[in-house]
Amino acid sequence: MINLIENEMLKLVRKKRFLVVTLVVLVIISIFTYAQYRTTQTAIQRSGTTDWRTILQQQIVDAQNRMSNSRSSNDMRQALKIRIAQEQYYLDHNINPNAPGAPTFMRTFGGQSVSLLLPLLIMVATSDIVSSEYSGGTIKMLLTRPVRRWKILLSKYIAMILSVSAIVFLVVAASYLIPGFIFGYDGWTMPVLSGFSVSSGDLNTSNVHLMPQWQYLIMEYGLVWFVCVVVGTLSFMVSVLIRSTAAGMGVMLASLISGAVLSNMVSSWESAKYLFMINLSLPNYLSGSAPPVDGMTLGFSIAVLAVWGFAGILVSFWVFLRRDVY
């Protein structure tokens, strides 16, 4: 089995997709770092001070102005209302939620990238792990080897999980090292508030508690890794079902982009909460952002993703073991 896994990993590396994914991650994080730097400088210029309390108060005023804008949708007003309540909570407890530092950037980037950017990178890296054997004509040679089919597919699945883990580790390392040149590398022990929840449109602070930022980051990137494994599993399933790599990538691309769009407009469509792409933003539960559909919780979203992932594994093995290859 180990030899099979090594062989599959070599195939993935030789496709040079990891090199492309690595370059994309480095470029995007550099752009995000510059954008964060410009945002910070603009906030300082507008408020005329570097005092974080004054800057945060100005952000609250800006959010209140956006809420009163007649062109803001109801969903936007609801999100702004929760954000204002959170920021006021930070002010009341004298905690800077945006203290400069690479760990703070990691926390922000992890929460924002898990809904679309990371799933897209995972899809690019794993969507042809089986279908390429058909398009390349190597599937017959692979199946004629004295190895059971389930072992062949299992080695590919394990290689997929290893590649997903490598991409998540790359994002963690890059989102710490690159912003550190500008913001510094301190902030691991900075206190962070967690435990916010949203119920019927109101922010519930009864379970809010402090934790060091390093602990928050472990929880956040653990959830990010879980989301990426589920997306990788579904890409793996599509790769088994659809022999064309381009068609498989198109299916996953459409699913992920539609999920990112739907998350902002399904508040009145309750059954949408069972779609996997609506449940990808697990770190938002840690920060206390409003869920796409009222009533969704962290446990519910993890359960939905686990069911989708388990179903993806079952379908992949069932189809691969029974399919005739001519």
Automatic annotation (TrEMBL):
Look up keyword DNA-binding and say if it applies. no
- UniProt keyword annotation of Transmembrane present: yes
Q: TM spans, by residue?
A: 18-37, 157-178, 221-242, 249-269, 298-321
* Alphabetic keyword roster: Membrane, Transmembrane, Transmembrane helix
Enumerate the GO terms in the molecular function aspect.
ABC-type transporter activity
GO cellular component term of the entry, any: plasma membrane
Q: What is this protein called?
A: ABC transporter permease
Organism of provenance: Collibacillus ludicampi
